[in-house]
Amino acid sequence: MKTFNDQPSKILISACLLGHAVRYDGKGKPLAHPAIERWKTESRLVTICPEMAGGMAVPRPPAEIEKGASGLDVLEGRARVFEITGGDVTTQFIAGAQKALAFAQANDCAYALLIDGSPSCGSVAIYDGSFSGRKHAGSGVTAALLQQAGIAVYSDHQIDDLASLLN
Question: Cα 40 from chain centroid?
């Protein structure tokens, strides 16, 4: 897809997928794929960590959306995001999502490639809020907000789908 100025569409990408040490555990989760390298050379990648953009530190306690709820539930005030320590970090997650959306829009991102499982970036499955390692279908706070704004969100497991779409 081309934007109005005939430049290739930009892709908002989770910073951890590029190896940046921004995850809750102080690590990255680099995604090795030929499309990533191609998009880098084409200057199509726009990098952000919504949790850090929302003011969270690295490292930080793991966080999950409560009671099997989703990012949309958080955005609509029906659920909260809690750290394993009990701290309520809903405000930071919403602020990070809003900053990610503003950043994506300012950079003409039509797509987002986000790390799955995250209470911010998950788009296929997220943890269920029990801190037991169980996941359920759903989106994190940032993924839900980007989707609401019309940005096509892909998980790291769907990179081949995004790559074929953009070839």
Answer: 18
